[in-house]
Amino acid sequence: xxxxxxxxxxxxxxxxxxxxxxxxxxxxxxxxxxxxxxxxxxxxxxxxxxxxxxxxxxxxxxxxxxxxxxxxxxxxxxxxxxxxxxxxxxxxxxxxxxxxxxxxxxxxxxxxxxxxxxxxxxxxxxxxxxxxxx
Length: 134
Hints:
This protein is α+β, with helices and mostly antiparallel strands. The chain has three helices and five strands; from the N terminus they run ααβββββα.
């Protein structure tokens, strides 16, 4: 037996439709990438933009909470830091990026309306748990 006798067998063993076998994994990979974009990347970008808006809108007199859970009123600001009045005699300086949320906004009723929104968001959760218990 020579190599010439095996040549037709080798040529016949190669699949003719290789494109079909490659298409399925590419479509699957594309779907996984799209799902990851919409479930992970896009919401994270949105949160970062909202956090940046919050940090840009900070001003003296606003009540804020830090990522460590410390609550205080802004009494001074620099480019990259904030001075919080925590108690009558206690002032702490934090990095501006450590502010995680706004409790009350300085001005007419800013804090009251925001507190109402927080209470309204919490109340339906409590109602749902009461309905589940009964």
